[in-house]
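Most newcomers find our protein records easier to grasp once they have seen one. There is nothing in a record beyond a sequence line and a structure line. Getting from the letters to the tokens is the skill we practise here. An example says more than a description, so a record of this kind follows:
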Amino acid sequence: MFKKFLKDKKGSEFINFIVWVPFLLILIVVISQIAIMGYDQVVVQETSLVAAKSAAQNPDTIEVSAQQAADDFAGKFLPDWSDKSTINVSYPDTNPGSEVTVTIHYIFPKYAFYTNILKRPSTDYVRGQSMQIIEEKP
């Protein structure tokens, strides 16, 4: 009786399909999450550079110009930029030659797989930091 079932190969490919499909779906989700994190990291780093340049060129309004430049640049590329980002501008003074450092934290979008199965906090973020020197005005 069992020999008949052992010789019958019908459905064996379906079992392979059932085994591999969940694995492939998880792999696709993981790869896309890594791609999202990488993209957000590049944009946040570039945003910090743009904000630091703007702050260094406008020493009278350092924090306002850095915030405005960051919002203008990153708002085009990242969803919910104003709600999910924090910008910290630090500088010792506004004299030419002083350093302006802009640090940005952005909470990137996550799949439920990332937060539930991998047990990662939903507040994970990418960080960008840039430093520029305040320019002397002619």
Q: What stands out?
A: The longest strand covers residues 99-107.
